[in-house]
Amino acid sequence: MPVLRNKASFSINAEQYELIKQRMLNWSKQFSILLFLDSNGNRDKYSRYDCLMGAGMHNAKTISSLEDLHQFHTTNKDWLLGHINYDYKNNLEPKLSSCHEAVVGFPDFFFFQPLVVCYIPAGTNELIIETLFAGPQQVYNEIINSPAEITDDIPEVSFTRRTDKEVYLDTVDKLRQHIKEGDCYEINYCTEGYAEDVEIEPVAVFGALNKLSRAPFAAYYRNNHRYMVCASPERYIRKGGDTILSQPIKGTARRGQDEAADAAIKSELFNSIKDRAENVMITDLVRNDLARSCETGSIQVDELFGMYTFPQVHQMISTISGRLGQGRPFTDVLRYSFPMGSMTGAPKIKVMELIDHYEDTRRELFSGTVGYITPGAEFDFNVIIRSLFYNADTRRLSYQSGGAITYDSIPESEWEEMRLKAWALERIFTKE
């Protein structure tokens, strides 16, 4: 039987807009399971919410697989929020494995039915609260009486690179050799930075990261003693009605010092043969992935080589869509497209084997996804990049960064791109 929630809408004015989000985060600290998603005002024609939060776990039942997810949603038709680790690939393709130890500890697959859902629909001045345990007015009162300030007390942290520069450059050359020999066309190669014996306030770290990188798919996620703070610019996959849409990113360039430099860098990225080749390959891979769950003939490329600018970087983004096959469960979209092609390469199975062989760290939640599913089975999921991961029990803080390797890749340039992405995360722990 569908779940019925208590629901109410509350007006917020422009001055309250950012403050209400900070109050929501401070209020949410009481919960050991929560997910906060923030578009940071980066609205596109596919945006549903300016921000959305699910807090508390109503049902103790563990939703730990796509089969569980579909069955639970079919029965309850309620909100579900959660994550899929990159390593869930091993459940989707039996020949795959992950040889490295998991150190952050997020479950491979985890969705929860939240006690409270709060969201601001895109382009509105309304906060909507849906609850299962209390009146929405009570929740609203608790939120607006929560502190509006997020502490900026961030410790100074020095990160250790798992893979040194010499090894990184040598690995890029080895991957180029695999491409030359025809094993693959493109492969995403990443490396880890980490710090041990670190004590942080995760909400404060999210606030600092979100201030520097106001990304459209930002997320703050707590799963008991495990935390993720995320400044992702990338949408993995979205369902609206029967329309399925994916927006892979391939092509990254730094921001310039001024408008003229910015324009020149953006033009260089748009005209880069290497980046356009990467983007086309990933676009084709996504088309093939969507074709496995969508109606024949419905797949189309809505935008190729779209140029988008963010606080730290310019990105080349393409948009691919299709229509879900009649009678297919919505989970088939995830089953046949995960992990996202922008974080693997092509052909997908072979490059995932190479990734596990050449990378020094298990990816876990990095290259995975967080997102929401509505009672009507619509959803939106991000790509977990530009993110920090923290285990409060072990006091270990880490991130991963990298990029797509093609035969035309210049190892030194790949190193510089990886470090550019890493610096966007490290800088919030550097005293200036």
Structural notes for this entry:
The protein is 29% helix and 31% strand. With 432 residues, it is α+β, with helices and mostly antiparallel strands. It has a single domain, classed as Anthranilate synthase. The strands form two sheets. Strands 1, 2, 3, 6, 7, 8, 9, 10, 11, 17, 20 and 21 form a twelve-stranded antiparallel sheet that branches. Strands 4, 5, 12, 13, 14, 15, 16, 18 and 19 form a nine-stranded antiparallel sheet that branches. A hairpin with a 3-residue loop joins β15 (300-309) and β16. The protein is globular. It starts with 5 loop residues before the first strand and ends in a 6-residue tail after the last helix. The model has no long low-confidence stretch (mean pLDDT 94).
Briefly characterize the structure.
The protein has 432 residues and is of the alpha+beta class. The chain is built from eleven helices and 21 strands.
Question: SSE layout and pairings?
Answer:
Elements (H helix, E strand, L loop, with lengths): L5 E6 L5 H11 L5 E6 L10 E9 L8 H11 L3 E5 L4 H4 L16 E4 L1 E8 L4 E6 L4 H9 L15 E2 L3 H16 L5 E10 L6 H11 L4 E7 L2 E7 L2 E6 L2 E5 L1 E6 L4 H13 L1 H19 L8 E10 L3 E11 L7 H5 L9 E2 L1 H11 L10 E5 L5 E4 L4 E5 L4 E10 L5 H16 L6
Helix pairs in contact: 5-11
